[in-house]
Amino acid sequence: MKKILSHSIIFILCCFVAFNSQAQSEKSRVLSYSQWIDEMAACTDSVYELRNALIRPVLKTDTVNRTIEIQAKVLISNVEFEGYSAADIIYLSHWVNNIAELKSLHFKSDLIFDYCSGLFPAIMDTKINGDLHIKNTVSNGDLDLRRVSTKGLHIENCTLNGYLGLNKVSTNGNTIILNNQIENLYLIESKLNEGLTIEKCTIDKNLYLKQDTIHSQVVLRFIKAKEIYIRDCLFEYPADSATLEMFRVSSSDANEFTLSECSFITSDKNKTLRLLSNSFQNYTSIYNCRIDPHLNLNNLYTTGRLVLGEHNQYGNYVSLHNVSYNDASFFDWPTLRSNIIGYDWLSDSEEDRLYHGQTDEELASTMVYDRLIQNKQGIYNLYRTQGHRQYANEMLLEIRDLQTRMLKYRYEQNPNLEAYFFWKMNQFLKTFSAYGTNPVIAIIYSLKVILLFGLIYLFFHNDWDIGSRKIIGKRLRFILTYFQVNKGLSELDQEQRLESQNEVVLLASENEVSTGKIPFFFTRLINWYVKSNLISDSLRKFALRKMDILSGTFSNLPKKQQRKVAVLSGAWFMGFLLYTVLLKVLNALTLSLNAFTTLGFGNIPTKGFSRYIVIVQGFIGWVLMTVFSVTLITQLLQ
């Protein structure tokens, strides 16, 4: 038994030694950074290939900051990079966080790193005529690319214990960052001419894009990060591109997503900026952006705040589909007004998915219609909760307009009296009260109705008029007599009012005889009444004497005096007519207001056909006053 055990131990030790020897032999070469760069520069073959090597800095002698051209295609596979130790700082100036810098190199063809490990060197101020590939690499530090110009950039299947930083990188081909695990990912002040794809990346902290210029499509997909922050970037998309999605963030998970101060420029209004099937828990914000394409928020789930902020410029529409948000969310209505539409996810064609609810074909899709109503109702409820009554009312107008179009469509599909009245009632409410959101409209229409019917009543007599034919005829006869008799205005007026004056005189005498026979109070009251009439008569006589323009008869006056009297009497008569007309207008407006408010005073002060006009106006007034009252109460309750 002991013999078997001892043999087993010896076998295990041999295996361990053999494994160790193999591990040592895996790194068949050990090079310094200077030796490695010199080898690449000296290679005359089409491909420079380095496998199973260890690149280790050498104190004092390593110089990596050299302007060197490398003609061959470079393939670095299964190479381990060592960084500098803390002691090396006294000898070397070219290091960042113990990582070597490859600086000022010019690669004439592709540069490929595959299955590398260790502390990956920083690549700076480098030009690569081909593509830069970094694949299957595990770095114990940062992967730092600064001021690198390359045709294409591919970073795939890497595990970085530090950050991935692309600072002022310029690419003319595709930029793909795929299936990496990174602490942070920074893309800053870079110019990417053939789009950007970041896919299947797990980022422990933040994905950060700032001041980048990116042409062609941008896709951020299957990303998990703490924060996705995109700021001050320019995204340009050619109109002739076959892909409709200009910018897409999909199937990603983050605590916060922010898109700010960015410009999305395209001349094709069918292009789309889409957030699809994402889960942003705390905060989702789009603000101060110029967005030419259609903005589509689709299956966006958040338990936090959603912000479509102020200063956004939408060149096209904004559609929401299955979007959740809390009451602290903010939708800037001045920029969203009339821009919120639906999204027809049932359509096979991406170009036909914008849903306005305008045509019969769109209204036939009741499921999409219901979802659009639901989305707009959600924003309406948000504005009401936050106290933005004006914004809520304007959103309600858009909802009711959409519903009115649907009522018209349903009537056209199945004509019946009930459907017709439902449709017309909505149109009526829009015209006279903006669907119950603006009582001022009902007041304005009420004033128009009162003025219109007041104009009609001018052509009909009512009991309140003082300018009747009998009264006007009496006045005209008074004027005829005045010009033909040798009497003044005061005398003629006294003659016409003799009967009423006699009544006052008779009342005064009877009151004097009755003194002591009736209560003292009534005696004094009658005396006051008699005196007031006498004073009124005196003032009337005084005024008429001052207005008297004729001495004797008109025919006996000289021609010059006749012209003067004619002018003065004409002015007096025109004043009388103006006074009569003003009273006529006032009575017509009073009658119109009385009929509109349906007060009535128990009697209709008109005769003949005008009675029916009053009844019609009363019905119109009842309807408009009801609309006004209900609308006002609704707004007060809100």
What portion of the residues fall into strands of 2 or more residues? 25-35%
Structural class: alpha/beta
Q: For the report, how would you describe the main beta sheet?
A: 35 strands, mixed
End-to-end Cα distance, whole Å, is 93 Å
Overall pLDDT level: 84
Helix coverage percent:
40-55%
Number of strands: 35
> What is the helix tally?
14
Please tell me what the overall shape is.
rod-shaped
C-alpha Rg (nearest Å): 48 Å
Poorly predicted runs:
9-25
What oligomeric state best describes the polypeptide chains here? Answer: single chain
Summarize the structure.
This protein has 638 residues and is of the alpha/beta class. It is 41% helix and 30% strand. It is built from 14 helices and 35 strands.
Characterise this structure.
The protein has 638 residues and is α/β, with parallel strands linked by helices. Helices cover 41% and strands 30% of the residues. It contains 14 helices and 35 strands. The protein has a 35-stranded mixed beta sheet that branches. The radius of gyration is 48 Å and the shape is rod-shaped. The two termini are 93 Å apart.
